[in-house]
Specification:
seven-stranded mixed β-sheet; single chain; three-stranded antiparallel β-sheet; about 15% helix; alpha/beta; about 325 residues
Length: about 325
């Protein structure tokens, strides 16, 4: 995805538009067949309060559309071993990082000390928060202690493998914000993790998920590798729904001169939400139907670690 103007044509299909007449009641898997609404496909300036929600028209199934096999990975060996060697690199380009930092700056209080308590999930040696963001508490949870120790934006950190232990080591209602950067595609039990995030967020708190089209292919879940950017938005939005969040919103905050795309999917915990222990599980029986997938672009990004780039589909 190169430099493009906002509102460019959608390349998801030759008849791009809102899919109509989709039966999700008998076939929850059809959720993934919904297409973008061309009227809403615009880039959001990460510095602006005006946002263009890419999934405002989406309808959700009553039952989970996911299959157990969706969360399988090519490499099922220990994640702790995979991440044991520190990687002091950035996994997205400078403009994607800039877009994300600008979005955070427009969202978080900046310029002075605040009472904000924030959790950076799947954290590393940098969190991409604005330099003048001064939260009361910034906790990082990640896989590599050496990387986390170097993150100067954190006040404390925890080493934990969420694919082995989804339960977060924090009390209910602990954080105003939770952030997760280019890591949601690696979660093999994402709904359980999202329920835990919902539990530790304060009522009215927000989870901000951001991702691009790069990943370690052997560790990303199968459904992510087999689908494109548009479907990635739907996948993450459904994680939110199943975890009990308010209706999620999705934005493309890629800079006009950006190369790597940057997407946000976020949602808020209801102000009167119960803890996850009191929530009813909405996971139901899943209908096993085939999911149409597209070809993948195997571009490689080299910065001491190989990356796989899934194909961008929102724009041409």
């Amino acid at each position: 995805m190169g430099s493009m103007t906002a509102g460019a044509a959608i390349a998801a299909s030759s008849s791009a538009g809102v899919a109509s007449g989709i039966d999700m009641k008998s076939n929850p898997r059809n959720y993934f067949l919904q297409e973008p609404d061309m009227k809403t496909v615009k880039r959001t300036d990460p510095n602006s309060e005006k946002k263009f929600d890419l999934i405002s028209h989406i309808q959700y199934p009553e039952m989970s559309p996911f299959l157990k096999s969706d969360f399988s990975r090519y490499d099922e060996s220990s994640d702790a071993e995979f991440y044991s060697t520190p990687r002091f690199v950035t996994h997205i380009d400078d403009n994607a990082i800039k877009a994300l930092s600008q979005y955070y700056a427009a969202t978080f209080p900046t310029g002075k000390a605040s009472k904000v308590e924030i959790l950076d999930l799947c954290s590393s040696w940098i969190s991409h928060y604005p330099k003048d963001f001064m939260p009361a508490k910034a906790v990082g949870l990640g896989m590599n202690g050496a990387e986390l120790k170097e993150n100067k934006q954190l006040t404390s950190y925890v080493v934990q493998d969420l694919n082995k232990e989804a339960k977060l080591p924090f009390p209910d209602n602990s954080f105003d914000y939770v952030t997760n950067v280019v890591s949601v595609d690696y979660l093999s039990q994402p709904v359980e993790v999202f329920k835990e995030i919902h539990r530790v967020l304060k009522p009215g708190g927000t989870l901000i998920n951001s991702f691009s089209n790069r990943c370690f292919p052997t560790k990303a879940i199968d459904l992510w590798l087999q689908t494109q950017d548009w479907t990635h938005l739907l996948i993450v939005a459904e994680y939110f729904r199943l975890a009990g969040f308010e209706k999620p919103k999705a934005y493309d905050i890629t800079l006009a001169n950006g190369h790597d795309p940057m997407y946000i999917v976020e949602a808020t915990k209801k102000s009167n939400s119960l803890s996850s222990q009191a929530m009813c599980t909405r996971m139901g029986h899943i209908v096993d139907v085939s999911l149409h997938v597209s070809s993948l672009d195997h571009a490689v990004h080299g910065q001491e670690c190989q990356h796989f780039r899934t194909k961008s589909t929102l724009y041409v």
